[in-house]
Design brief:
This protein is mainly α. The protein has a domain of 28 residues. 41% of the residues lie in helices and 0% in strands. The longest helix is centred in the N-terminal third of the chain and has 17 residues. One of its GO terms (molecular function) is structural constituent of chromatin. Belongs to the histone H3 family.
């Protein structure tokens, strides 16, 4: 049995979608520009790797020595 071609469906909401896009563009342009500089965000894992390298280079103790008694 031969395959039949699908009939294209007409969308009735296209004019509304175009209007909606126009409204979004206007809102985007009229939005107030936030003042100040964004804080820098590093990629995932970058800061962790930097900390690992830092602590591997150093000789400082991460946990301070504490006095103890032997029993």
């Amino acid at each position: 049995m031969p395959r039949s071609k699908a009939v294209a469906k007409k969308s009735s909401d296209k004019p509304a979608a175009k209007k909606n896009l126009h409204v979004q563009k206007v809102e985007r342009k009229s939005a107030p520009v936030s003042t100040g500089i964004k804080k820098r965000r590093f990629r995932a894992g970058t800061v962790a790797l930097r900390e690992i390298k830092r602590y591997q280079r150093s000789t400082e103790l991460l946990i301070q020595k504490a006095p103890f008694q032997r029993k």
